[in-house]
Amino acid sequence: MTAPVAAFAALLGLIFGSFATMAAHRIPLRASLNGRSKCPSCKHTITAVENIPVLSYLIQRGRCRHCGAAISVRYPVIEVLTATLFALAALRFGPTLRAAVYAAFFWVLVMLSVIDLEHHLLPDRIVFPALAAGTLLLLADAVSEGAFGRMSIVAAASAAAVGALLWALLPGRDPAPESPNRHAPWLVGLGFVLVWVGLVGLGIADGVQRSISGALMGAAVFAGFFFTVALLVPHGMGGGDVKLGLLLGTFLGYLGAPGLVLVAMFMAFVLGSLVSVIVLFAGGSRKSAIPFGPFLSLGAVASVLIGEQVIDAYLGLGAG
User: Is 36 exposed, middle or buried (0-12, 13-18, 19+ CB in 10 A)?
Assistant: First the structure.
C-alpha cells in the first residue's frame, strides 16, 4: 500500500513542481501567476505538450522547439526535487491528511529556497499565506486525530470562518506599492496571529493539546532566536529569515517541540557553515552574501523526515 501511495504522491509532486518553477520566476518580478508561460527568448507561448514535467525537457533536449534557445536545467531539477519530497512525505506519514499537509509544506520551502538563492528574498506573498493556510491545515489535522474532543466542531467552524476572511484579504495579484491592497500580506499575518490566539483559547477550554502547544512553542523558539540575532547583529540576519522561522517552527513544533526545532536549527547552521567554508576556499570573501533560507529549509525537511532518529541517536550516545 505504501509504494502506490508514494508513487501517486511523486506524480502530484511533478505537477506541483512545475507550478513551483513558474511561481519562483514570477513572484519576485511581481508578475501575475495567471497566464501561460512563454519562452524568454522568442516569447513563444508554451503549449501543454511542451510543459509536461521533466518529460518535455528530455524530449526537447533542453531547448525551445521554436528558437532553439537553451532551457534552464533548474526546471526539471525543481520538478524532480518536489516529486521526491512529496514521495518522502507519503512514506513518512502514510495515506493521511498529515502527509498532504507536510507535502505542501515542503512545496512551499522549495519555492522559497529557489527565490532566496536567485534573489536573496523570502517574499511575504508566500510566507504569510503559508503561515495562515498551514495553521488551518494543522488545526484540521489535530481535529482529525481527535485532539480537541468536544471542541472539534467549534474549532472547525472557527477555522473555516478565519480561512474565509484570510482568503478575502489576499489580493488576486501582487499589489503595487500604491495599491489599496498593499497591506494585504500584513493583514494575513495578523490573521495568522488571531488564529493562534483562538487555538490557545480552545486548548485552555478543552485541555492544552500537545501538538498545538508544541506548534506555538516551536514558532516562538525558532522565530524568537532569529529575531534576537537580528537585533544583536543587524546585518547578520534578515527579517525574511525571522518570518520563515515562524513558519518552520510552527510545522516542526507540531510534530515535536522543542526537539525537532532544535535539530532543524542545528542542521541549518552546520550546512550553512560548511557552505561558507567552501565559498571561502573557492575564492570568495567573508562578506560574500549567502542566503540562509535554503539551509533553514533543508534543515527543516531533514528534521521532519529523520529528526526523531537523530534525537534517539543523540540520547543513545549520552546514555552510553
Answer: exposed
